[in-house]
Design a protein that fits this description.
alpha/beta, Aspartate Aminotransferase, domain 1, Aspartate Aminotransferase, domain 2, binds pyridoxal-5'-phosphate, about 350 residues, 9 helices
């Protein structure tokens, strides 16, 4: 069977070359006669993978030396509490912008660790836009943002004006565009959207953010533990780290995150133009906040959803069913999605309109 165009939100599409090289390394890693899965995480060969993954993260995102790179476990969901546990205590104040399901979960966890204020929210409109123009209190310890809202299909295209360090959930748009690193105190991203398989979470943290809370932190949940041991305090998730490293090599070979951004803008324009042109579909998210990663849209005519998904499937386009909280359709077009893939989907939409409008 030929490879399908995978529009799934996550676990999500990875570059073909990365999948192939990963499969080879699982079978016989670089001709060592051993699988990547059965060698010591403390051996020189795996240590060099971890080092390369960290170095590529720094290079691709332009991180200064005072930012540390970690590969942890527990998913982005564990970062909802780990950030607050490490950064917030009763003397501080965490400010959150509530832009979707994921930020709502992060807020719930932060409240367990110290004063937490929701300073802006788009909940009243089912998170279909990104709030703007709010004030960040001067005494905030950090401001938590979600750069891309995977479920509702909105993305933050500009950061708010503030000197407060930003803590950001970049799970679904990490490495999709350049970032202004100086604005961030901490960034986290689960691998399975735009970087690798599920099982590791990238954390980037500025050193001065740590060590300021009035509590003891259990070793595994303390960022400093993992910084001191270069993400190998315990056995790291070797396979997800390896695949993520290969994806970063691929991003670099394509011209880095600036080239990714250009490619992603082109792809998003193709799909959004078709949605706006096509009488059978309409976009969900506010136009100025549309995500370049997750394109959400619904049918304008009753009863055509199943047929449209079947038409997509027949053309090799899969994973397009929308999240249950939004309905309709969602085309996730992460870094590894090709122009050919989005053109195929746009063509299906055109053909479907001709047959059903
Ligand atoms: C998927 C996702 C999460 C949750 O990630 P897990 O690794 O499953 O815990 C959190 N935030 C965003 C923005 C996501 O897209």
């Amino acid at each position: 069977m030929s490879k399908k165009y995978n529009f799934s939100a996550g676990p999500a599409i990875l570059p073909d070359s990365v999948i192939k090289a990963s499969a080879e390394a699982v079978a016989n890693w670089d001709g060592t006669g051993l699988s990547l899965l059965e060698v010591s995480h403390r051996g020189a060969k795996f240590v060099s993978v971890l080092e390369e993954a960290m170095a590529l993260t720094k290079e691709l995102l332009g991180l200064p030396d005072n930012y540390k790179v970690l590969f942890l476990t527990g998913g982005a969901s564990s970062q909802f509490y780990m950030t607050a546990m490490n950064l917030l205590d009763k003397n501080g104040k965490a400010c959150y912008v509530d832009t979707g399901t994921w930020s709502t979960k992060a807020i719930k966890e932060a409240k367990l660790f110290g004063p937490t204020e929701v300073i802006a929210s788009s909940k009243e409109q089912n998170f279909q836009y990104v709030p703007k123009g709010y004030e960040v209190p001067k005494d905030a310890t950090y401001l938590h943002l979600t750069s891309n809202n995977t479920i509702s299909g909105t993305q933050m295209h500009e950061l708010p004006i503030t000197n407060t360090p930003i803590v950001c959930d970049m799970s679904s748009d990490i490495f999709s565009r350049p970032i202004d690193i100086e604005r961030y105190g901490l960034i986290y991203a689960g691998a399975q959207k735009n970087m690798g398989p599920a099982g590791t979470t990238l954390v980037i943290v500025r050193e001065d953010m740590l060590g300021n809370v009035d509590r003891e932190i259990t070793s595994m949940l303390d960022y400093n533990t993992h910084i001191k041991k270069d993400s190998s305090f315990n056995t790291p998730p070797v396979f997800p780290i390896f695949v993520s490293m290969l994806t970063m090599r691929w991003i670099k070979s394509q011209g880095g995150v600036a080239a990714m951004a250009k490619h992603n803008e082109e792809k998003a324009a193709i799909i959004y133009n078709e949605i706006d042109r096509n009488s059978l579909f309409k976009g969900v998210a506010a136009k100025e906040d549309r995500s370049l990663m997750n394109v959400t849209f619904v049918a304008t005519k009753e009863g055509i959803e199943k047929d449209f998904l079947a038409a997509c499937e027949a053309a090799g386009c899969v994973g397009l069913k929308g999240h249950r909280s939004v309905g309709g359709f969602r085309a996730s077009i992460y870094n590894a999605m090709s122009i050919e893939g989005v053109n195929t989907l746009a063509q299906v939409m055109q053909d479907f309109e001709k047959a059903n409008a």
